[in-house]
Protein backbone atom coordinates (compact mmCIF):
# COMPACT_ATOMS: atom_id res chain seq x y z
CA UNK A 1 0.00 0.00 0.00
CA UNK A 2 1.24 3.47 -0.89
CA UNK A 3 2.67 5.47 2.00
CA UNK A 4 0.50 8.38 0.86
CA UNK A 5 -2.74 6.41 0.77
CA UNK A 6 -3.99 8.30 3.84
CA UNK A 7 -3.63 11.58 1.90
CA UNK A 8 -5.74 10.19 -0.95
CA UNK A 9 -8.40 9.19 1.59
CA UNK A 10 -8.23 12.62 3.23
CA UNK A 11 -8.69 14.33 -0.15
CA UNK A 12 -11.73 12.18 -0.91
CA UNK A 13 -13.30 12.77 2.48
CA UNK A 14 -12.54 16.49 2.37
CA UNK A 15 -14.44 16.86 -0.90
CA UNK A 16 -17.40 14.93 0.49
CA UNK A 17 -17.49 16.79 3.81
CA UNK A 18 -17.48 20.13 2.00
CA UNK A 19 -21.09 19.31 1.06
CA UNK A 20 -22.11 18.63 4.67
CA UNK A 21 -23.41 21.10 7.25
CA UNK A 22 -21.02 21.99 10.04
CA UNK A 23 -21.61 19.83 13.07
CA UNK A 24 -22.33 16.72 10.98
CA UNK A 25 -20.81 13.64 12.58
CA UNK A 26 -17.92 12.12 10.62
CA UNK A 27 -17.57 8.35 10.13
CA UNK A 28 -15.46 6.59 12.73
CA UNK A 29 -11.92 5.41 12.00
CA UNK A 30 -13.19 1.83 11.89
CA UNK A 31 -15.85 2.77 9.33
CA UNK A 32 -13.32 4.66 7.20
CA UNK A 33 -10.92 1.71 7.34
CA UNK A 34 -13.61 -0.72 6.14
CA UNK A 35 -14.83 1.62 3.40
CA UNK A 36 -11.39 2.18 1.87
CA UNK A 37 -9.95 -1.25 2.61
CA UNK A 38 -7.10 0.03 4.78
CA UNK A 39 -5.88 -0.53 8.30
CA UNK A 40 -6.88 1.57 11.28
CA UNK A 41 -3.52 3.36 11.22
CA UNK A 42 -4.16 4.73 7.70
CA UNK A 43 -7.72 5.72 8.63
CA UNK A 44 -6.47 7.49 11.76
CA UNK A 45 -3.81 9.33 9.74
CA UNK A 46 -6.48 10.46 7.25
CA UNK A 47 -8.66 11.89 10.04
CA UNK A 48 -5.64 13.59 11.61
CA UNK A 49 -4.86 15.17 8.23
CA UNK A 50 -8.43 16.49 8.02
CA UNK A 51 -8.02 17.91 11.51
CA UNK A 52 -4.75 19.63 10.53
CA UNK A 53 -6.60 21.22 7.60
CA UNK A 54 -9.38 22.35 9.99
CA UNK A 55 -11.93 20.35 7.96
CA UNK A 56 -13.03 18.43 11.07
CA UNK A 57 -12.91 18.99 14.82
CA UNK A 58 -12.58 16.14 17.29
CA UNK A 59 -14.38 16.45 20.62
CA UNK A 60 -13.18 14.14 23.34
CA UNK A 61 -15.91 11.74 24.37
CA UNK A 62 -18.29 12.84 21.60
CA UNK A 63 -16.68 12.05 18.25
CA UNK A 64 -15.48 13.86 15.13
CA UNK A 65 -17.59 16.51 13.41
CA UNK A 66 -17.50 18.69 10.31
CA UNK A 67 -15.81 21.94 11.27
CA UNK A 68 -16.58 25.50 10.29
CA UNK A 69 -14.07 28.34 10.43
CA UNK A 70 -15.29 31.88 10.10
CA UNK A 71 -13.36 34.95 9.00
CA UNK A 72 -12.59 37.40 11.78
CA UNK A 73 -11.86 40.64 9.93
CA UNK A 74 -9.53 43.22 11.46
CA UNK A 75 -9.63 46.60 9.76
CA UNK A 76 -9.73 50.27 10.68
CA UNK A 77 -13.07 50.48 8.91
CA UNK A 78 -14.58 47.63 10.99
CA UNK A 79 -15.62 48.46 14.60
CA UNK A 80 -13.42 46.62 17.14
CA UNK A 81 -16.36 44.56 18.37
CA UNK A 82 -16.11 40.79 18.75
CA UNK A 83 -19.90 40.33 18.77
CA UNK A 84 -20.50 42.47 15.68
CA UNK A 85 -17.68 40.82 13.73
CA UNK A 86 -18.81 37.28 14.54
CA UNK A 87 -22.45 38.10 13.73
CA UNK A 88 -21.38 39.65 10.41
CA UNK A 89 -19.64 36.36 9.56
CA UNK A 90 -22.93 34.50 9.99
CA UNK A 91 -22.36 32.91 13.40
CA UNK A 92 -23.91 33.48 16.82
CA UNK A 93 -21.63 35.30 19.30
CA UNK A 94 -21.84 35.09 23.08
CA UNK A 95 -19.59 36.60 25.75
CA UNK A 96 -19.27 35.42 29.34
CA UNK A 97 -17.70 37.80 31.85
CA UNK A 98 -15.40 35.91 34.21
CA UNK A 99 -14.13 38.87 36.23
CA UNK A 100 -13.97 42.67 36.36
CA UNK A 101 -11.54 44.30 38.79
CA UNK A 102 -9.77 47.62 39.22
CA UNK A 103 -5.98 47.39 39.12
CA UNK A 104 -2.97 49.70 38.68
CA UNK A 105 -2.03 49.97 34.99
CA UNK A 106 0.79 47.45 34.37
CA UNK A 107 4.06 49.02 33.26
CA UNK A 108 4.04 46.83 30.14
CA UNK A 109 0.85 48.58 28.95
CA UNK A 110 1.73 52.15 29.95
CA UNK A 111 3.18 53.09 26.57
CA UNK A 112 0.16 51.77 24.71
CA UNK A 113 -2.21 53.68 26.97
CA UNK A 114 -0.04 56.79 26.90
CA UNK A 115 -0.62 56.99 30.66
CA UNK A 116 1.74 56.51 33.59
CA UNK A 117 2.07 53.03 35.05
CA UNK A 118 -0.13 52.70 38.11
CA UNK A 119 -3.08 54.63 36.67
CA UNK A 120 -6.39 52.99 37.57
CA UNK A 121 -7.80 50.67 34.91
CA UNK A 122 -10.47 48.01 34.73
CA UNK A 123 -9.14 44.55 33.91
CA UNK A 124 -11.86 42.47 32.28
CA UNK A 125 -11.49 38.74 31.68
CA UNK A 126 -14.04 37.17 29.35
CA UNK A 127 -14.77 33.99 27.42
CA UNK A 128 -16.06 34.38 23.86
CA UNK A 129 -18.22 31.75 22.20
CA UNK A 130 -18.95 31.16 18.51
CA UNK A 131 -22.27 29.34 18.37
CA UNK A 132 -21.72 26.86 21.22
CA UNK A 133 -17.95 26.61 20.95
CA UNK A 134 -15.71 28.30 23.52
CA UNK A 135 -13.42 30.00 21.00
CA UNK A 136 -11.52 32.81 22.76
CA UNK A 137 -10.00 33.82 26.10
CA UNK A 138 -9.78 37.61 26.40
CA UNK A 139 -8.13 40.15 28.70
CA UNK A 140 -9.17 43.79 28.25
CA UNK A 141 -8.00 46.94 30.02
CA UNK A 142 -10.16 50.10 30.08
CA UNK A 143 -9.33 53.34 31.97
CA UNK A 144 -11.56 53.77 35.02
CA UNK A 145 -12.10 57.45 34.23
CA UNK A 146 -13.66 56.47 30.89
CA UNK A 147 -16.24 54.06 32.37
CA UNK A 148 -16.31 54.30 36.20
CA UNK A 149 -18.96 51.58 36.61
CA UNK A 150 -17.97 49.14 33.88
CA UNK A 151 -18.84 46.09 35.99
CA UNK A 152 -22.47 47.23 36.26
CA UNK A 153 -22.66 48.13 32.57
CA UNK A 154 -21.45 44.66 31.53
CA UNK A 155 -24.32 43.08 33.46
CA UNK A 156 -26.70 44.77 31.03
CA UNK A 157 -24.65 44.63 27.81
CA UNK A 158 -22.00 41.98 27.17
CA UNK A 159 -20.14 44.05 24.56
CA UNK A 160 -17.47 46.51 25.76
CA UNK A 161 -17.71 48.25 22.38
CA UNK A 162 -21.44 48.87 22.94
CA UNK A 163 -20.82 50.07 26.50
CA UNK A 164 -18.32 52.64 25.22
CA UNK A 165 -20.64 53.80 22.44
CA UNK A 166 -23.82 53.94 24.52
CA UNK A 167 -22.49 55.01 27.93
CA UNK A 168 -19.48 57.16 27.10
CA UNK A 169 -20.79 58.29 23.69
CA UNK A 170 -17.49 57.64 21.90
CA UNK A 171 -16.68 55.84 18.64
CA UNK A 172 -13.98 53.22 19.27
CA UNK A 173 -11.73 52.50 16.30
CA UNK A 174 -8.84 50.08 16.08
CA UNK A 175 -5.61 52.10 16.09
CA UNK A 176 -2.95 49.40 16.49
CA UNK A 177 -2.97 45.64 16.18
CA UNK A 178 -0.48 42.77 16.24
CA UNK A 179 -1.53 39.28 15.08
CA UNK A 180 0.54 36.13 15.56
CA UNK A 181 -0.05 32.40 15.79
CA UNK A 182 1.59 30.25 18.43
CA UNK A 183 0.97 27.50 20.97
CA UNK A 184 -0.74 29.21 23.95
CA UNK A 185 0.45 28.99 27.55
CA UNK A 186 -0.89 26.19 29.72
CA UNK A 187 -3.65 28.30 31.31
CA UNK A 188 -5.10 29.23 27.92
CA UNK A 189 -4.88 25.64 26.65
CA UNK A 190 -6.83 24.52 29.71
CA UNK A 191 -9.51 27.20 29.41
CA UNK A 192 -10.03 26.66 25.67
CA UNK A 193 -9.86 22.86 26.09
CA UNK A 194 -7.09 22.53 23.55
CA UNK A 195 -4.34 19.95 23.25
CA UNK A 196 -0.79 21.04 24.05
CA UNK A 197 0.31 20.96 20.40
CA UNK A 198 -2.56 23.02 18.98
CA UNK A 199 -1.78 26.55 17.75
CA UNK A 200 -4.01 29.54 18.40
CA UNK A 201 -4.25 33.13 17.22
CA UNK A 202 -2.95 35.83 19.52
CA UNK A 203 -4.41 39.28 18.75
CA UNK A 204 -3.13 42.30 20.70
CA UNK A 205 -5.01 45.50 19.99
CA UNK A 206 -5.40 49.16 20.96
CA UNK A 207 -8.64 51.08 20.33
CA UNK A 208 -8.95 54.89 20.35
CA UNK A 209 -11.77 57.39 20.33
CA UNK A 210 -12.17 58.17 16.64
CA UNK A 211 -12.97 61.84 17.37
CA UNK A 212 -10.17 62.94 19.74
CA UNK A 213 -7.72 60.03 19.71
CA UNK A 214 -7.80 59.06 23.41
CA UNK A 215 -6.91 55.41 24.08
CA UNK A 216 -10.07 53.64 25.21
CA UNK A 217 -9.00 50.02 25.50
CA UNK A 218 -6.15 47.57 25.15
CA UNK A 219 -6.88 43.89 24.65
CA UNK A 220 -5.09 40.55 24.41
CA UNK A 221 -7.07 37.69 22.88
CA UNK A 222 -6.23 34.02 22.33
CA UNK A 223 -8.54 32.36 19.78
CA UNK A 224 -8.73 28.78 18.56
CA UNK A 225 -7.27 28.51 15.05
CA UNK A 226 -9.77 25.78 14.17
CA UNK A 227 -12.65 28.17 14.87
CA UNK A 228 -11.43 31.38 13.25
CA UNK A 229 -9.34 32.54 10.32
CA UNK A 230 -8.00 36.00 11.17
CA UNK A 231 -8.10 38.31 8.16
CA UNK A 232 -6.19 41.60 8.33
CA UNK A 233 -7.43 44.17 5.81
CA UNK A 234 -5.44 47.36 5.27
CA UNK A 235 -7.14 50.50 4.02
CA UNK A 236 -6.05 54.08 3.47
CA UNK A 237 -7.94 55.69 6.33
CA UNK A 238 -5.57 57.95 8.24
CA UNK A 239 -1.86 57.39 7.90
CA UNK A 240 -0.66 54.73 5.49
CA UNK A 241 0.63 51.81 7.54
CA UNK A 242 3.69 49.73 6.77
CA UNK A 243 3.10 46.01 7.13
CA UNK A 244 5.66 43.40 8.02
CA UNK A 245 4.67 39.84 7.20
CA UNK A 246 6.47 36.72 8.36
CA UNK A 247 5.31 33.08 8.27
CA UNK A 248 4.08 33.52 11.86
CA UNK A 249 3.15 37.17 12.18
CA UNK A 250 1.32 40.04 10.55
CA UNK A 251 2.20 43.36 12.18
CA UNK A 252 0.24 46.54 11.59
CA UNK A 253 1.96 49.40 13.40
CA UNK A 254 0.01 52.34 14.77
TrEMBL record:
HTH gntR-type domain segment(s): 3-69
Family matches, as PROSITE patterns:
HTH_GNTR
Q: Which UniProt keywords apply?
A: DNA-binding, Transcription, Transcription regulation
Q: One short Pfam family name for this protein?
A: UTRA
Q: Which Gene3D superfamilies match?
A: Chorismate lyase-like, Winged helix-like DNA-binding domain superfamily/Winged helix DNA-binding domain
Organism superkingdom: Bacteria
- Name recorded for this polypeptide: GntR family transcriptional regulator
Amino acid sequence: MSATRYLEIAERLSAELAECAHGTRVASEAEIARRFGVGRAAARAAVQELERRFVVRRTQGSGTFVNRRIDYVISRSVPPSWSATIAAAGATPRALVKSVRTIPLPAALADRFERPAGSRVHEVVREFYIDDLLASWVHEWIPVDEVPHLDLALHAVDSVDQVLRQTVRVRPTRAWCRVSIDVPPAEVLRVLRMESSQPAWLVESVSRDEAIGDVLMCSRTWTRADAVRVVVELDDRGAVADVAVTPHRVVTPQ
